[in-house]
Structure formats: C-alpha cells, structure tokens
C-alpha cells in the first residue's frame, strides 16, 4: 500500500489532507464503508479524485489514515504522577473517543471491514499502534509497584478498555465516569502476579 | 416487527427455519449485511421468498433471529458447583463463539448496523437477553461470597467478556485459555464492594 509522503503542516498539502480526512469521516458516518466512494469524498473535499488516488492509493488506506488522524487528536497518554489517575484519564478519553459519532462510524467501518482482508490488517495495525502508544503508562505503573513486574501491558490495557468498548458496541450499557474508573480499579486490584504472568501472546 | 409464530420442532416448519437461518448466516459471512438479499437467502434455503417475508417480515428481523439461534446453540450457562469454574467455562464458550466465522460475520453485521436504527435496537436487545441469561451464574457467585453483594451482574459479565471481545475485534491479541481464565480471575479478585457498588446503569 502506498505510504503518503510527508507534507509541510499548514501548507496547501496539509489543508488538502484535513479536508479529505473530514470528507472521509463524513462519508463513513453517513453511508458506512460500503457507501464510501472516492468520487464523493473528492467532491466534498473539493479536490481532484486523482489527488486522492495518488496520495492514498486505495479506499482502505484512506480510511486507515483518517481513522488514525481522528483518534490521535482525541486520545493522549497522560503523566499526572499517579498511575491510577493516568489510567482513569486515559480510559475516559478512550470512552469519549468511542462515543464520538465520527469514531463510532470509523470503528463500524473497521469492524465491517473484517470481510476485507486489507482493511482487517489496517485495523490490527491501528490497534497495535494504539497499544504501543499507551505502553509507557503501564510501565510507569509497574515501576511504582502498582502492577506486577510481569504484567503484560497490552493485556492490562485490553482488560481496561475492553469492557468500555463492549458496553458501548454490545449491550449499550451506560459508560459513565464511575463505570470507567471501576474498570481501572478492578484491573489494578485484580491483576496479581500469577494471573498476569503466563497470559497471552 | 412481526414476531415469528411458534412452530413444531422437527416438522417441516422447523426445517424451513433451520434452512433459512443457515442461508442467512452464509449470506452474511459471504457478503456482509449490505450484500444480504432476501431473494438470495430464499434461493439458497430453497424456500419461497414470500415465506421469509411472511415469517420474519424484514431483513433486520431475519438477521436478529439467525443471530440469536446461532449463539444460543454455542453458549450455555454452566453450573459446575464452582463459580470460578462456571465463569471460566462460560467465558471460553463466549470466546469460541466470538472466534467462530459465522459469529464474527453476524457480529460484524450488527456492528455495521449501527447505521440502521432498527438493527442497532436488535443488537441491544440481543445483548440484553444474553446478559439476562448469565445473571443466575453471577447471583450464585454472590451467594457464595465470591463477589460482593452489591456487584452489578451486567457490569461483572461486561468486565469479563469485554476484554475477549475487544482483543479479537480490535488488536487481534491471542485469546487462549490462559487469557480467558485471567479475565475471570482479574474480575473475581478485583471486584471489591466500593468499586462495584456505585457503577453503571
């Protein structure tokens, strides 16, 4: 898949990128992945469709790039001095990102894309990047003794984020601040060395 | 939405139901929701399409019914005498159901259906039914003192199932038996009274 070349931020190129991302998110929100056409995105972003093909190559690459740009703006990795607080702030941001209509449309598109091999791969890479980004937060918790030394960071984050994701995309449970803090507290209290040691990957 | 009338199991009617369910699951697996046509399902199941319209009314009702029938066959609520064992057996069945290609296609269809109001509602009802079915298991754990009396059963199940669901549908982490048992043990060890008390719903 072609990788978009670097562009000067703030220039004409960055404006095009932003406009195309916004048009992509809009098209996904309105029509889902199967209704997303490069032509419609180009028309809405007021760029030539050859520009989109040249820069992103495929519809799948365009969606992946819009997804990453969209979430990158919404979720940061806090460093407040308290691991519990860091995890609560992070998990609330994830919750807000999951609840945002644009994210839900993008997640829906990714999930529906399990039929598309390339899109499924984009989804896995996207999540691998997100898990890698939050790893320092978990490593700080280990250094402070708030998680066992052999806790797998990806498993810890999965146990915190998974219930929020499932509550929203499955039964539609309320994911208020208490629910989210409870997810963090359960994992901090429940992750003990033998249980966390020999799991996964 | 029309509710399918009861039919004698084993009779011609039950055979039609099974054939239509199987054809629906096949169509979803192959083409996703947007590619699912009643005509194609009727052809594959070798029934008249008016039979499908008469019995299920809409494509959405058909998908919901196929989904429920499919998962009902795969996930039971065990009663082994040990709550931890019950939860591990249950969670492994959920894991197997999530990993099964037919379930993944159905889940994908439901998730993509967030654009469809009726399908989203079917999804919520489906999950509410699943959570209700497993509630006795959680209540037994409370009676045995393995979970606090004020633990919310739906939240407990969400915290166990959520990470499995997310690991599969997000980053694609391995969800082996140890991962699943770890999800149960973390929630059993980490669900303390204050944390579980004031959450959700």
From TrEMBL, chains A, B:
Residues 14-74 form the HTH tetR-type domain. It comes from Pseudonocardia humida. SUPFAM superfamilies: Homeodomain-like (SSF46689), Tetracyclin repressor-like, C-terminal domain (SSF48498). This is TetR/AcrR family transcriptional regulator. PROSITE patterns: HTH_TETR_2. Residues 37-56 bind DNA. Keywords: DNA-binding, Transcription, Transcription regulation.
